[in-house]
Design a protein that fits this description.
This protein has two domains: 1-142 and 337-385, 2-Layer Sandwich (BirA Bifunctional Protein, domain 2); 163-257, no CATH class. Helices cover 45% and strands 18% of the residues. It contains 15 helices and 16 strands. Strands 3-7-8-16-15-14-9-13-12 form a nine-stranded mixed sheet.
Length: 385
């Protein structure tokens, strides 16, 4: 399957067939969700910033549609819409996704797998990482660098610092965007110039400490006087809530120096996976934090990785590695070829225990998956059209 305009080809069909057999042998069944998907689902779950990368259209009834930008959400939607959506369930897929990007084609061939409903989370994490490495082997691509992270450890650190709820939420929302997170931590410690030290800061200060219902009503009244009923899809009430949150953030933007230093120290931890657990445990002891639960899960996952033949000493754990998607909840990973970041990640994967609930399931369902970027695999292996 030639990739027009690049001179590159997707991996040969026999490699695809080998990978498909590998997935089937691991208990995954083929999922083939429609290319056209409801756009609001992706915008609601992945944020407004994805809108500029979507290929948007509309149905005859005016419904906003898009070409699928990934497989994970469509596969999970299809699972929930199935009348026999039993758990656990395992799927694989193969086909194009569509994202507007500055360089390269917007049509991107991918293959990958999803595992839903397994209660043995740590073993499932190891299984899916090992499966992704085996799939790369099928394409003749070398998994030269594997980087892992764990949002559950980051959240446990946040919870142990005694920060106001609004700051915990703000910092968690920024996990996965290192520069923005660093700026927020610096602001929390009062170490940066605050661009809001103008009339807006005075307004926020006036809101802080007021009765929430009265403050919300005041903001809604101001918006009404200005003739504003909605901004960016947010109602007046939602805008008022945002102002109240900003007021709380403004109040809490100083006096948290120790917490900021502790959090920065945690985010700087990078080590081989077989050494990272000890490094995080030492950090926790030095700072009086109880990270026993997520560390136990980390240890169990590491043991399962060893059992599956993975060289954990060659895998990197990066405490600051996260994904800026609300539904990711724990272990994440990415795999690079010999070219490293310059060649782009060959595989991206992670745990998303909140996603199916956000899509309509009645409870959180444990889930983990990964996608392989076949155009990058083709480039890494020198495939030519």
């Amino acid at each position: 399957m030639a990739l027009s305009g690049t001179g590159l080809a997707a991996p040969p069909k026999n490699a695809i067939d080998t990978a498909v057999t590998l997935f089937r042998d691991a208990g995954h069944q083929l999922a083939d969700p429609p290319i056209l998907q409801p756009a609001n689902v992706f915008i609601d779950l992945t944020g407004e910033d994805i809108r500029r990368r979507l290929y948007l259209t509309s149905g005859a009834n005016g419904t906003d549609l898009c070409l699928r930008p990934d497989f994970t959400i469509p596969v999970c939607r299809a699972h929930l819409e199935s009348g026999a959506a039993r758990l656990p369930a395992a799927y694989f897929y193969h086909g194009p996704v569509f994202r507007q990007r500055a360089e390269g084609l917007g049509e991107i061939p991918q293959i990958g797998a999803e595992s839903l409903g397994r209660a043995d989370r740590d073993v499932a994490d190891a299984d899916m990482l090992a499966l992704s490495v085996q799939a790369l082997d099928a394409f003749g691509a070398q998994a030269a660098q594997i980087r892992t992270g764990d949002e559950s450890l980051f959240v446990a650190v946040l919870d142990g610092l005694g920060l106001p709820a609004v700051w915990r939420r703000r910092l968690r929302d920024l996990f996965g965007e290192p520069e923005k997170l660093a700026k927020a931590i610096a602001r929390m410690a009062g170490n940066t110039a605050d661009d809001d030290r103008d009339i807006r800061l005075g307004f926020l200060s006036a809101l802080d400490g007021a009765d929430p219902a009265d403050a919300r009503a005041a903001v809604e009244d101001l918006l009404s006087i200005a003739g504003i009923s909605a901004v960016g899809g947010r109602s007046a009430g939602e805008i008022a809530e945002r102002f109240l949150e900003q007021a709380a953030l403004a109040k809490g933007s100083s006096g948290s120096v120790a917490a900021a230093e502790t959090l920065s120290a945690y985010l700087s931890i990078t080590a081989p996976a077989d050494q990272a657990g000890a490094a995080v445990a030492t950090f926790a002891k030095q700072n009086g934090l109880d990270l026993s639960a997520p560390l136990a899960a980390y240890t169990a996952r590491l043991s399962a990785m060893r059992d599956r033949g993975l060289d954990v000493g060659a895998i990197t754990f990066d405490a600051g590695f996260g994904r800026r998607l609300d539904y990711y909840t724990g272990f994440i990973f990415e795999i690079y070829g010999p070219a490293g970041a310059k060649g782009g990640q060959l595989v991206g994967g992670g745990r998303y225990d909140r996603l199916l609930n956000l899509l309509g399931a009645k409870a959180d369902i444990p889930a983990i998956g990964f996608s392989i970027w076949l155009d990058r695999v083709a480039a890494a292996t020198g495939a030519r059209a």
